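Colleagues,

For the teaching module next term, I've prepared a clean inverse folding example: a structure given as tokens, and then the sequence designed for it. I'd like students to try predicting residues themselves before seeing the answer, so please don't circulate the second half yet.
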């Protein structure tokens, strides 16, 4: 640190101003005695004068005492010092604890425990600080049920807010899903060659729907009314086969890249892609983009490969080309029984039963 000339004839107020001004360029430093002597404002070794000057700065709220490997001082801005000087001792104690907590905020229970103030005095101090817009309450995703406070002049940390994945203290699942879809589409384009020609699958000509006669029995009529149109439209075997063939043909258009292909997207490329796009106004860091990529790896949509200048890249898995319906749907979820309006009446010998249910037979044939 640069040193200035020492003037032993200066009075204490002048030394206070000179010492404070000399400390301003090093606002985030914890000053101890040797550092302050090194500034050259107070004569080296004149401990009494130094302590008098520093105590004056503490009284003016321009310095705050800290204990870091011994006694030390940290700087406050003149504007912040003016705020402190307007407070009562109780209000200053509460505000100081909130100030020390920084952008993580502090729990009201912690403030009470550290300040040891009576509840009425504590609530009065909080009310005064809020009325002066010096503090504000905040939500923490780590402790959603706790009443937290933070200085009004600073923004909560990502640790407290959850970063870009949270909105108003709630997990923003829609935003996460949207960003993963955007990343996946970019990775897919770099993973497969999309052929304009069709695949090997062929479509069967669409067959006319069969119209089944309704039973005269009341239970069967009610069953047909509740399930008939839905099941007949959705679960006809020929319609399902036609739909699946169309999906297979769409997937067949995506051809794998040749062996040795090195242009799979890397983390830096994907981060830059999101940053330079207009998909979101938020800026996502590389670590935040990596979190989304890890989720997609876990979901089996993409995988890590050794490629690119960074030595690691990402490519889409072929199974991910199937739609969510293809991956999750199976014949068990298509059973008509769960949605049948006369399910409680279904039994052998009753008005409807498994042996005479045309919908159940149709499902068994799938």
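(Answer key — instructors only)
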């Amino acid at each position: 640190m640069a040193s200035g000339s020492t003037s032993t004839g200066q009075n204490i107020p002048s030394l206070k101003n000179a010492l404070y001004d000399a400390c301003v360029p090093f606002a985030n430093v914890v000053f101890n005695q040797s550092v302050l002597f090194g500034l050259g404002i107070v004569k080296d070794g004149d401990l009494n004068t130094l302590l008098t000057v520093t105590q004056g700065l503490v009284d003016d709220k321009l310095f705050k005492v800290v204990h870091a490997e011994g006694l030390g001082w940290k700087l406050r801005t003149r504007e912040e010092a003016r705020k402190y000087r307007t407070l009562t001792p109780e209000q200053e104690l509460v505000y100081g604890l909130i100030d020390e907590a920084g952008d993580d905020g502090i729990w009201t229970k912690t403030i009470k425990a550290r300040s040891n103030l009576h509840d009425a005095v504590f609530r009065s101090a909080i009310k005064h600080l809020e009325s002066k817009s010096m503090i504000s309450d905040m939500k923490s995703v780590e402790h959603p049920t706790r009443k937290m406070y933070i200085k009004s002049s600073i923004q909560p940390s990502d640790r407290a807010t959850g970063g870009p994945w949270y909105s108003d203290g709630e997990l923003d699942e829609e935003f996460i899903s949207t960003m993963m879809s955007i990343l996946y589409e970019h990775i897919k384009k770099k993973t497969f060659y999309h052929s304009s020609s069709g695949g090997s699958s062929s479509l069967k000509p669409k067959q006319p729907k069969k119209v089944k006669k309704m039973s005269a029995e009341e239970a069967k009529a009610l069953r047909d009314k509740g399930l008939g149109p839905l099941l007949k439209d959705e679960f006809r075997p020929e319609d399902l086969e036609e739909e699946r063939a169309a999906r297979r043909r769409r997937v067949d258009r995506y051809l794998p890249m040749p062996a040795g292909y090195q242009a799979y997207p890397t983390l830096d490329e994907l981060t830059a892609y999101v940053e330079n796009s207009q998909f979101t106004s938020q800026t996502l860091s590389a670590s935040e983009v990596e979190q989304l990529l890890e989720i997609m790896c876990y979901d089996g949509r993409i995988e890590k490969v050794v490629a690119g200048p960074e030595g690691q890249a990402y490519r889409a898995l072929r199974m991910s080309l199937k739609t969510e319906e293809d991956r999750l749907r199976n014949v068990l979820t298509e059973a008509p029984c769960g949605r049948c309006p006369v399910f409680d009446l279904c039994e052998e010998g009753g008005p409807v039963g498994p042996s005479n249910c045309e919908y159940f037979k149709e499902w068994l044939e799938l």
